[in-house]
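STRUCTURE:
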């Protein structure tokens, strides 16, 4: 069979051919009938008689020559309905005698029903009798039209994918909206009636409609099978695609009821894949049979891939957000999430007027569980506490883990403070039953602080402030004996307001040069010489005068200001020690001791900060003593241990302060690289008066000797205490008996006068 030519003849060629055809001739007729086109002559009009049509008409259109000759209306009857009027409109005498008649393209139906695109070039001439007759050529341009259609469709499809990609970037937080946009955009592609997105269920057995199809259609069913009996399920099962070219002749898959409603004739389904499991299926439909083929798969799959990326990105964002806002151990919301929720509740309360309350809960003696049973047991307890708390709360109340063994509970929509206390009591009752850890029952109690924000109390309440109030009430519960609930009251609020005011003023103290250092000498109990001085920070408050550390250091620790204040103290003390050394260059340099809080020690940058200060000031690190309280040992964090070891490697001397006040210090002392320890003043006060206190001090000194640690007694106020310390062979002491803490200039004066020492101790003996 000859391939039909897809080429337009030039106007000159057509004109020459028509002239030759008019001249006739047997040989020329044979030539015409071998061309891959249909040559014809036909009278004007929709039912104009066809005088001649070349035999190629049977090959191209499926009709014989004699059928066209016999039936004048055949040509008009096979015109495509969408092109019929346009083709008929050309049948006009206005074209008579014109050689520049514009060619026309239209579709016709072959005898077998297949649509063929025809390119019709003809001229209208009058015959000998004056009858207008068309002399023309019909080309089969179906292949070109198909190529043009494919190109147009490809460009249209690419535009849809590009637009969908843009929307995916703009709406990354809402995959549902993107799915609806995708079905809308794809549904506008030429030949596509509709698109829909199916999500595979967790059991993998059903596909549920997520987007696409009108409400009237959806009523026919929102689910289809995820097995191979549906074309969408077949695509999911194979992991590729499934094409149904004609649903009337489809035997592999059952047509879903939702497709019957709008008369789907053909469908194409592709998988919306995921990293771990498929999300579902993107399904497109047409009311025309044979509308989809393998050529359409790349477009639909590209759209599905955009959706897959957006869904995966959203899932990753949600997972990250969940990790950011939830505690990994218990699965509860964390403090950040709690603060957000509390802020929302407080905002709504300003409109509704309903009080908002929170409970700040801390487990009692939780550290004993960790120390005696191990951290795994402590973690198991925390995991068990979480559901227990939830089960004793109202629907809508929020439980969060703040960290460690601290929990926050948001209780809004309260009637009054009494309801908050009742809820707190109910939560406390949750601890009446034991918790099973490693098969053993353990009874645990909790201290609960309650704070309620009242809409009409006339003060601005924010989330952090309310949490701080509840925290303060919880500590009051601890001080009252634990295992109880305490409501934050007016007295505690007044104290909290004072602390806030101090914190606000303290933030400006460094900038305004209001901080100062006083130094208390440390005396050698064998020689009376002063070997070093302890730097004690003071605050020259512009209104309240000179403030001792007890009035502001704890506030600095709670607010985080202790770290910049601590750095200032360390650098100022190191520089001052070097200045004093210059006043007495022939004597041993004085050691300078600086106190570190547990918060400072727990900060991972502490060793680097100290190293930088030593390098900047030039002080020999062996003359810097850093004093750490026993609370560091009790916490025993990995960061604290690492920091102290790093400081020891720098050559800094480490001193354990307030020794004897912590219940676990003896068990942990050997794990830290200390060089000396300080006996707490509470033991020194009773020396020579209470036999028990004397025995304790003697035991501490004996233990220190065994561990090769120096011993410093603090708070020495009397000669009796001094005598006892000398008898017990204590190394050093400090206290008002020797010197009170002095400003820098006073120490400098004593050094200049050569009076830096304690004359009450002779170098000859004790």
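SEQUENCE:
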């Amino acid at each position: 069979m000859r391939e039909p030519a897809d080429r337009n003849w030039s106007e000159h060629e057509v004109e020459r051919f028509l002239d030759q055809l008019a001249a006739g001739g047997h040989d020329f007729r044979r030539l015409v009938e071998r061309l891959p086109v249909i040559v014809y002559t036909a009278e004007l009009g929709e039912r104009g008689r066809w005088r001649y049509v070349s035999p190629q008409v049977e090959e191209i259109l499926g009709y014989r020559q004699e059928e066209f000759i016999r039936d004048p209306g055949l040509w008009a009857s096979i015109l495509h309905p969408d092109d019929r009027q346009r083709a008929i409109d050309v049948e006009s005498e206005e074209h008579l005698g014109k050689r520049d008649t514009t060619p026309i393209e239209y579709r016709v139906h072959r005898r077998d029903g297949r649509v063929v695109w025809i390119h019709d070039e003809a001229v209208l001439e009058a015959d000998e009798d004056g009858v207008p007759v068309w002399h023309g050529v019909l080309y089969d341009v179906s292949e070109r039209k198909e190529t043009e259609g494919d190109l147009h469709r490809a460009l249209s499809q690419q535009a849809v994918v590009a637009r969908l990609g843009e929307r995916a970037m703009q709406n990354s937080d809402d995959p549902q909206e993107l799915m609806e946009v995708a079905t809308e955009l794809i549904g506008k592609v030429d030949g596509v009636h509709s698109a829909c997105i199916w999500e595979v269920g967790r059991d993998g057995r059903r596909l549920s409609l997520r987007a696409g199809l009108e409400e009237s259609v959806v009523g026919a069913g929102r689910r289809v099978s995820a097995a191979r009996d549906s074309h969408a399920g077949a695509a999911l099962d194979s992991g590729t695609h499934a094409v149904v070219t004609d649903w009337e002749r489809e035997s592999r898959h059952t047509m879903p009821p939702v497709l019957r409603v709008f008369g789907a004739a053909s469908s194409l389904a592709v998988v919306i894949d995921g990293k771990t499991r498929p999300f579902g299926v993107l399904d497109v439909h047409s009311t025309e049979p044979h509308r989809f083929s393998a050529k359409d798969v790349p477009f639909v799959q590209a759209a599905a891939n955009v959706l897959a990326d957006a869904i995966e990105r959203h899932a990753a964002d949600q997972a990250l957000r969940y990790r950011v806002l939830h505690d990994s151990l218990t699965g509860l919301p964390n403090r950040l999430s709690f603060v957000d929720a509390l802020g929302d509740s407080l905002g709504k309360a300003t409109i509704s007027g309903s009080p908002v309350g929170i409970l700040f809960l801390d487990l009692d003696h939780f550290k004993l569980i960790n120390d005696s049973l191990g951290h795994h047991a402590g973690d198991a307890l925390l995991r068990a506490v979480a559901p227990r708390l939830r089960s004793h709360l109202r629907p809508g109340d929020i439980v969060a883990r703040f960290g460690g063994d601290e929990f926050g509970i948001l209780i809004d929509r309260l009637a009054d403070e009494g309801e908050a206390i009742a809820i707190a009591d109910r939560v406390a009752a949750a601890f009446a039953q034991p918790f099973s850890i490693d098969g053993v029952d353990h009874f645990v109690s909790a201290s609960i602080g309650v704070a309620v924000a009242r809409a009409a109390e006339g003060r601005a309440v924010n989330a952090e402030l309310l949490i701080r109030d509840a925290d303060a009430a919880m500590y009051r519960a601890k001080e009252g004996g634990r295992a109880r609930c305490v409501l934050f009251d007016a007295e505690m609020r007044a104290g909290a307001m004072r602390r806030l005011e101090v914190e606000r003023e303290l933030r400006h103290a460094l900038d305004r040069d209001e901080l100062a250092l006083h130094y208390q000498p440390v005396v050698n109990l064998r020689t009376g010489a002063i070997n070093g001085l302890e730097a004690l920070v003071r605050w020259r408050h512009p209104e309240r005068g000179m403030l001792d550390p007890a009035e502001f250091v704890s506030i600095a620790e709670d607010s985080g200001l202790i770290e910049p204040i601590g750095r200032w103290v360390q650098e100022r003390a190191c520089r001052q020690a070097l200045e004093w050394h210059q006043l007495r260059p022939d004597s041993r340099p004085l050691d300078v001791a600086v106190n570190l809080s547990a918060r400072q020690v727990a900060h991972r940058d502490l060793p680097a900060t100290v190293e930088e200060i030593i390098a900047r000031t030039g002080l020999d690190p062996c003359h810097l003593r850093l004093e750490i309280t026993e609370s560091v040992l009790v916490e025993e964090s990995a960061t604290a241990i690492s920091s102290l070891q790093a400081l020891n490697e720098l050559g800094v001397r480490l001193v354990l302060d307030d020794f004897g006040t912590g219940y676990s210090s003896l068990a942990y002392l050997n794990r830290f690289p200390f060089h000396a320890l300080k006996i707490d003043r509470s033991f020194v006060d009773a020396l020579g008066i209470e036999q028990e206190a004397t025995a304790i001090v003697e035991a501490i000194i004996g233990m220190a000797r065994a561990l090769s640690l120096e011993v410093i007694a603090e708070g020495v106020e009397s000669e009796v205490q001094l005598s006892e310390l000398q008898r017990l062979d204590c190394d050093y002491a400090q206290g008002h008996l020797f010197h009170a803490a002095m400003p820098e200039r006073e120490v400098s004066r004593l050094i200049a006068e050569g009076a830096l020492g304690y004359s009450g101790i002779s170098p000859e003996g004790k």
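REMARK: The longest helix spans residues 142-170.
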